[in-house]
Amino acid sequence: MPDRREWDVTGMDCAACVSKVKGALGQIAGVQNVEISLVSQKLRLTMDENAISVTKVEEMVRSLGYGIRRLNPATVADIVFAQDATNDAAAPDTPWYKTGKGRLVVTTGILLVLAWGISLIAPNEMKPWPFVGACLVGLFPVARRALASLRVAQPFSIEALMMIAAIGALFIGAAQEAALVVFLFAVGELLEGVAVSHARDGIRALGALVPKIALREDTAGIREVPAVELRLGDVVLVRPGDRIPADGEIISGVSGIDESPVTGESVPVSRGPTDAVFAGSVNTEAALRVRVTRTAADNTISRIIHLVEQAEEARAPTQRFIDRFSRWYMPTIVVLSAVVVCLPPLAFAQAWSVWVYRGLSLLLIGCPCALVISVPAAIASALALGAHNGLLIKGGAVIEATARVKTVALDKTGTLTLGRPDVTDIIVLDSLPETQVLAVAAAVEGASSHPLAQAILRRAQSNGPGIDIPVAQESRAIPGRGVTGRIDGMDFTISSPLQAVRDGALSATDTARATELEAEGKTVAVLYGDKALALIALRDEPRADAAEAMRQLRNLGITPVILTGDNSRTAAAIASMLGAHYKAELLPEQKLAEIRALAAQGGVMMVGDGINDAPALKQATVGVAIGSGTDVALEAADAAILRNRVSDIPALIRLARSTMRNVRQNVSIALGLKGVFLIATIAGLTGLWIAIAADTGATVLVTLNALRLLRSRSLDATS
Where is the HMA domain (predicted)? Predict the structure, then answer.
């Protein structure tokens, strides 16, 4: 039976490293579904242990020059970066000069300086030998990795090209340049590692948010326990100033909660009994008792980390194209180098030493490192910046699609509005007293999580113990139509006036009264059995930043459209306040049709928060769930907004557009520099050390340009 396994893999600095490990493991019989995260350094795969052993997998990774440590099933929030001195693996806080690549830079640098010093006093015939020694010492670990790649049928690795170029330079008497090339290559690899570690910092910081210790209440009192041992239903005490150790629900106490470590929202929010709280949030004011609702492996921080890891697998179309391009680009460069070496001497009687030198230089400048890392470096930076600002994006494909969005379709209730409507009017249409109307309505809505249902329940509960809410049997939601339930053998329904008219339960007079309420911007629910019993009017105010968000979308050249199942008059009132187009009285299948129609005009983003929105979120070019929405909506969506700010929608689009600009800049830098130096190398204007310096420089420039995205810690319109 196939088994899913997970490891930490250390020493990977770029997308080429990931491809190397993935390609090697993919060739092993019995290994399937290999997933590698460069940012979190996680390796996951499915393996048949009857065909292959865990040890064989680990030996394969180590043979490629990377460290590997097996993980037991545990929380992903507790990320550990193991140290393996024999495989260039280092803990995240290890100084650069103590890592394997750092030691190689220091060693080759010292040997290069010594070689130059010795060459000043040594006889002419002995001057090259110190450089030969320096070159061979620095080349040894590179050659070992090149041979390991060759054994797994990956002959065109950068290490292989480097080894060929350095050894070739030694054979044509360019020992000084060979030693300098090896040193610059080591420096380039070290800089790549340092740059990539910045992208990892954001994920490490997320994992560090959850406290390691929790104060758990049990029969023996309150005692400290590891946070990873908390189970569902455990009760923990959170003192003022403490971080909350698990996702949970407040049992007692009222306090300000600083959720900025999780959602990016800078202003603490007041939370009290029955309110949900996130692991990693900070309790700022008073002691709280919290019941654990998610284990450490499933809390908000862990889910964010897991989503970021998954996002790396969802490659942007541009990245997939570059990956395909690089697969034939490398062999082409090797063939071109061979032609440059052989053709002039054989066809035109040119000097072999000159053209071997130029061919080796061409081999180095042709290395695709900068090109290969150009897209994933920018995407990784965007994912980290998004997570810091409460925006979860499920991969580069989502970022690229978001950058091309022309229309944003938004659900109304809970997305553009606060999602917490209040009952404003109860108009009894039958002889029942208002308290009984409320009791029946609350019973029917009791099993629903819809904001309107919760408003009716709150109103019934606020009337005090005088209302005895019965238990409804066979309660069920009819998407886009309403809720039904059976009480004491009688069927009751709560729906829109339009549906009530269709069911023959609402008279023309009562319909007119409902219309008057809707004209005031209120949503009307009709309670009826075999006839109408009451009209219940509710109002849900727009979010404070909704109008500003619509303005920002229009400034970005994007058309905002409200898609709602609410009545036309209420939708028109909200749309007029916000300055958006609208489509009202839509059933879920009608929302899908609207999304398809909008998609025909260009990329469309759908933003919603409810179960009813899940199909539309899937249908849209990009589906975005508001973080307070249901798990169904979050699973269906391509991205999520954790802090419930409508203004984060244009922020997400700005981030996507900035990222794609960065990608285009990176590709231009990588290809532009290579194009210039390829021509200069063939013309004999550049040498080996300039070739490797240009390749290393291009890689570093591309990575630093990608990291520019992380400079802007805020995604506000003014940033």
Answer: 3-69
